[in-house]
Amino acid sequence: MNKIHAVKCIHLCRTCYDGYPISWEGSDGKKVFFYTRRPDDELGIAQRLAPQLDVEFGSTQEYPTLENAELAKGYDAVSVTPCDMSAPMVKRFHELGVA
User: Fold this and answer.
1) Domains in the chain, start-ordered, CATH in brackets?
2) CA 69 to CA 14: how far, in whole Å?
3) CA dist., res. 14 & res. 53, Å (int)
């Protein structure tokens, strides 16, 4: 994972939702949950960009697991790079309402 991971994720959430381009003008801000977020660089980037881009975020330094998938409940998207996302993990996020 590189230093611009948080920037890429926030920009991706602004421009693409459910696989389709979206307009953020006049819409509520989107929420993204970061797994494996690094505290030394990615946290600061996300904190700086989130208000500018009307994106709310939550995060953990943990890798996503079936046990901690619940952390993403209520979020529109998750950032999981470079984590291995198995079919059960994707299904679990879907069950929680994460797109």
Assistant:
1) 5-95 (3.40.50.720)
2) 22
3) 7
